[in-house]
């Protein structure tokens, strides 16, 4: 099988690597890819949002499957263009990608499907926003209805800041979704969907704030780990039954079946898991640790989903270990990352180092974005996986580069305490401890995503 992956970040590096491990896969191509993917796949200088160019490329390499990494090409209709050309695509149609592209659309689907989520109101006037903010009370959650490149959501105690964000959205002609604040630790749960059936992955958690202990501005994500030792043991079943399956059924009933990766961003509230957001693609950086543990043949499974038939696939198998991913970011990230600086100390073949924002300047690898690398570690315990990730990271140099020190730290601490309490050696990990937010200060801080 020949697979074409669209995108250029760490997520796409991880997707291409996982596809290359599938025994059914002969060749992996990536457009545009990065120096990391160039070490084992063929990169093509084609933009994922240039739909005719993507179709031409897929035809010319005789791709059996196209896997779409980022949301923008999906919202722009790349899956429709490929399917119209008879090329199987793992990714939703533009109509189904509205689950991420429009918060108001996602809210309507959830309401129609009876999926638990924050109470919300779609507003078109500032007066209406003000009234709903007061009805819900602080902390305030104000969302731009459209795709806003990660800048669309403000969570804040400050009513003035909430109103200012709403006014900005309204001024550019967007609707505003005001939501009730959901309290509880956040979990990312991904499901591979064929329009009707879903194969859920194990849960992961990412760390959105730039600084240790959940301080500073929001980012695309500074690290992630999986599995979550503290998550309820029936979380995946519960989310499948209450959230994923009803959403798929609703999407199918309204004539926009969802084929691709459904990303449920959840808050584990005192009254159960509730949806904070849906995304229509793999999350970044959760995908990097997740796929590093995946034993099932990813490309074959995504092809089955793209062909609307997951019926023969029993489930997804993950290596029974922990994986931790830590992001190395450029100085100045997220507001003004300094790019172009050399990165040294890594070998391009290292499967534990995913390239998120790199390029070659002659022979020299340099940073080309805010998030530069995602460095992984694995272990039988979270503490072991953390130690390996940070050890791997310490071997890499980027002038001014920085990372968070506390990725998976709270959960590893809890693991150690539970081990002590039960007299376990470090080989046993508590899997069903009480849920603890990794970033206790995060959820009550003003936040701009
Ligand atoms: P979104 O783009 O909808 O994922 O929101 C970005 C981030 O804002 C989420 O990952 C949450 O951390 C936070 N957030 C969004 N909606 C809510 C909510 N209703 N309650 C609390 N936090 C939220
Ligand atoms: N890790 C968050 C996202 O991919 O949206």
From TrEMBL:
Single GO term (MF): phosphoribosylamine-glycine ligase activity
Keywords of the record: ATP-binding, Ligase, Nucleotide-binding, Purine biosynthesis
Domain ATP-grasp: 107-307
SUPFAM superfamilies: Glutathione synthetase ATP-binding domain-like (SSF56059), PreATP-grasp domain (SSF52440), Rudiment single hybrid motif (SSF51246)
Gene Ontology terms: biological process: 'de novo' IMP biosynthetic process; purine nucleobase biosynthetic process
Pathway listed: Purine metabolism; IMP biosynthesis via de novo pathway; N(1)-(5-phospho-D-ribosyl)glycinamide from 5-phospho-alpha-D-ribose 1-diphosphate: step 2/2
Catalyzed reaction equations: 5-phospho-beta-D-ribosylamine + glycine + ATP = N(1)-(5-phospho-beta-D-ribosyl)glycinamide + ADP + phosphate + H(+)
Enzyme class: ligase
Cofactor: Mn(2+); Mg(2+)
Entry keyword ATP-binding: yes
EC nos: 6.3.4.13
Annotated region (Disordered), positions in chain: 418-449
Transport found in the keyword field: no
Pfam families reported in the protein's UniProt record: GARS_A, GARS_C, GARS_N
Alphabetical list of NCBIfam families matching this protein: purD (TIGR00877)
HAMAP family associated with the record: GARS (MF_00138)
Family: Belongs to the GARS family.
PANTHER family for this protein: PHOSPHORIBOSYLAMINE--GLYCINE LIGASE, PHOSPHORIBOSYLAMINE--GLYCINE LIGASE, CHLOROPLASTIC
Name of the featured protein: Phosphoribosylamine--glycine ligase
Organism: Cutibacterium granulosum DSM 20700
Gene expressing this chain: purD
């Amino acid at each position: 099988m020949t697979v074409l992956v669209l995108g250029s970040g760490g997520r796409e590096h991880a997707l291409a690597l996982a596809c290359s491990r599938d025994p059914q896969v002969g060749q992996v191509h990536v457009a545009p890819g990065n120096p990391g993917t160039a070490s084992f796949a063929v990169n093509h200088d084609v933009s994922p949002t240039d739909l005719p160019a993507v179709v031409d490329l897929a035809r010319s390499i005789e791709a059996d499957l196209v896997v779409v990494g980022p949301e923008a090409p999906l919202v722009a209709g790349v899956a429709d263009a490929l399917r119209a050309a008879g090329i199987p695509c793992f990714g939703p149609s533009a109509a189904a990608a509205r689950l991420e592209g429009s918060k108001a659309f996602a809210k309507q689907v959830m309401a129609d499907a009876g999926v638990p989520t924050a109470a919300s109101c779609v507003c078109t006037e500032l007066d209406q926003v003000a009234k709903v903010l007061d009805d819900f009370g602080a902390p305030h959650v104000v969302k731009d209805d459209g795709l806003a490149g990660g800048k669309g959501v403000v969570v804040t105690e400050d009513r003035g800041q909430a109103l200012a964000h709403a006014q900005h959205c309204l001024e550019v002609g967007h609707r505003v979704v005001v939501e009730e604040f959901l309290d509880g630790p956040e979990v990312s749960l991904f499901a591979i969907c064929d329009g009707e059936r879903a194969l859920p992955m194990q849960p992961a958690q990412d760390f959105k704030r730039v600084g240790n202990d959940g301080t500073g501005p929001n980012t695309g994500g500074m690290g992630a780990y999986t599995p979550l030792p503290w998550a309820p043991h029936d979380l995946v079943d519960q989310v499948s039954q209450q959230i994923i399956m009803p959403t798929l059924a609703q999407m199918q009933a309204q004539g926009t079946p969802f084929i691709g990766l459904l990303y449920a961003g959840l808050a584990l509230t005192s009254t159960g898991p509730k949806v904070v957001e849906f995304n229509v693609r793999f999350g970044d950086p959760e995908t990097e640790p997740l796929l590093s543990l995946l034993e099932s043949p990813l490309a074959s499974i995504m092809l089955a989903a793209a062909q609307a038939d997951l019926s023969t696939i029993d489930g997804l198998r993950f290596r029974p270990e922990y994986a931790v991913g830590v992001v190395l970011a450029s100085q100045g990230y997220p507001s003004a990352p300094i790019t172009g600086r050399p990165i040294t100390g890594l070998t391009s073949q290292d499967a534990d180092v995913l390239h998120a924002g790199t390029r070659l300047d002659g022979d020299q690898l340099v940073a080309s974005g805010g998030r530069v690398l995602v460095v992984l570690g694995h272990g039988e315990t979270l503490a072991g996986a953390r130690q390996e990730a940070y050890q791997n990271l310490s071997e890499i140099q980027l002038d001014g580069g920085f990372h968070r020190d506390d990725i998976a730290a709270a959960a590893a601490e809890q693991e150690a305490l539970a081990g002590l309490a039960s007299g376990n050696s470090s080989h046993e990990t508590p899997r069903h401890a009480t849920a603890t937010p990794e970033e206790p200060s995060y959820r009550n801080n003003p936040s701009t995503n």
